[in-house]
């Protein structure tokens, strides 16, 4: 059920703070994950870094919506955030399939393990507070952004599991499989995000 909050009945400061925290973390996460992906030749880390970039854009879109005066409508922002999830699903699929075809050796990445572990802790917290503020403000775009934060945590868990299993058992294909495992949930949540629904995992 949608919540329509009348204009002027809430302060956007908490939402803006959440988005600035997201922007700061995503800059770090994207930079570190892409460096780790390059060093380790990891498809799942590259997918994770791409997700960070999408989340960065999504947070910026929501920030623009809550600017004073708003620079983007709720409906347009929600559609855009949902579209970003579809883009992310396509990018992850392409990267993972490329990794399976090339069958290149994936190296152990302590940096990748550290950044995905950090995301696994932080992103569910951000998703929870974004969902709460979305319910309070009635913002579909913020609900979609909460979906992306939850999806980021899910990707972090899959990527971390793939990296650890790869280091323990030496199966290079696990890296790409971990990336592909995220695609169905991303597509499902993209549909929900475009309707402004809260995902089941956040």
Automatic annotation (TrEMBL):
GO terms for cellular component: cytoplasmic vesicle; membrane. The keyword Transmembrane helix applies. It is found in: Cytoplasmic vesicle, Secretory vesicle, Synaptic vesicle membrane; Early endosome membrane. The chain crosses the membrane at residues 15-38, 80-102, 108-129, 141-165, 171-188. It is a multi-pass membrane protein. Keywords: Cytoplasmic vesicle, Endosome, Membrane, Synapse, Transmembrane, Transmembrane helix, Zinc. It comes from the Bacteria. Belongs to the TMEM163 family. This is Cation transporter.
